[in-house]
Amino acid sequence: MSETPHITLGEIFAEQGEILKMHLVAGEHGLHRYIDHPRVQNPSLAFAGFLEHLSDYRLQVIGQTELHYLNTRTEEEQRQAVDAVFALNLAGVVVTRGVEPPACILEAARRTDTPLFVSACESSNFMADMMLYLSRKLAPRTWQHGVFVDIYGLGVLLMGKSGIGKSEIGLELISRGHRLIADDMVELVRATPDVLVGHSPELLRYHMELRGLGIINIRDLYGAASITDAKRLSLVIELTDWNDSMLDERVIASDQSMILHQVSMPYLRIPIRPGRSLAVIIEVATRNQLLKHRGIDSNQSFIQALDHRIDQERDKRDEG
């Protein structure tokens, strides 16, 4: 389950207006318009008549270069150039360096209900800070059922069918000193092409659902050290029912992975049956993943040593 993120100009103004020294000068009726891309644009070529690559879903930033260019044109040419740009139904426009927008830009913004802001920041600083903010807000995100726990500093996602015991195992891990990030529903944000960061939806934050007990508040029960708000996902563990086929899986491949939200993640499948201490096994699996981050793979080393021993025995038989 995923969505294409977007943010309205009203939300941007509410969250970043004071930080980026912005004030609204026109187009208040268009604050519901939204953008869906973190990059911002300078409409330099658009004012010269080249409108082909001007995106109406990006924030437009007008700086000294654009204003100086407009000043080289006659009033009629300025009006025509600005009207052609604003006729594209732009999401929003920002004039930087605290410069009062020319009358033709003010009139066009009012006529088209395009939100028009003035920022006291320099263009380069405003664009860098705005793109950083938008990159976080517009990062692709999806939702995944499971329990997300911080174990030894790694974000571990416990998956499995409903009723298999994910929350109970998560609670045992918390009682052993690890930290809850999310229960039942995990929000995964793709911060970079190969990094997923997990959060809890705000309504569910710090809470767990346990059959027989209902909803419990982990922060109230175990203290602030038992919870954290976000963590990079480093390991996916799927909890499965035990069956006879598990008896054949003594040595498994060390490079198992799962594609989650278009990102390849380390993956383990752990079977459940009475008598197994799942919390301890998950702790060991996490420690093992930490070793892999340091280039130490016990499973792969054993397989390589076993293959080497088999080759040696084969060579001895051939020589005999």
Verbal overview:
By secondary structure, this protein is an alpha+beta fold. It has 2 domains: 2-137, Udp-n-acetylmuramoylalanyl-d-glutamate--2,6- Diaminopimelate Ligase, Chain: A, domain 1, CATH 3.40.1390; 141-297, 3-Layer(aba) Sandwich (Rossmann fold), CATH 3.40.50.300. The protein contains 10 helices and 16 strands. It has helices at residues 9-16, 44-47, 64-71, 75-86, 103-112, 123-137, 166-175, 218-222, 278-293, 298-319; strands spanning 2-3, 7-8, 22-26, 34-35, 59-62, 92-95, 116-119, 141-151, 154-159, 179-192, 195-199, 207-210, 214-217, 230-241, 257-260, 263-272. The strands form 4 sheets. It has a 5-stranded mixed barrel. Helix 4 runs parallel beside helix 5 (103-112) and helix 7 packs across helix 9 (278-293). The chain is elongated. The mean pLDDT is 89.
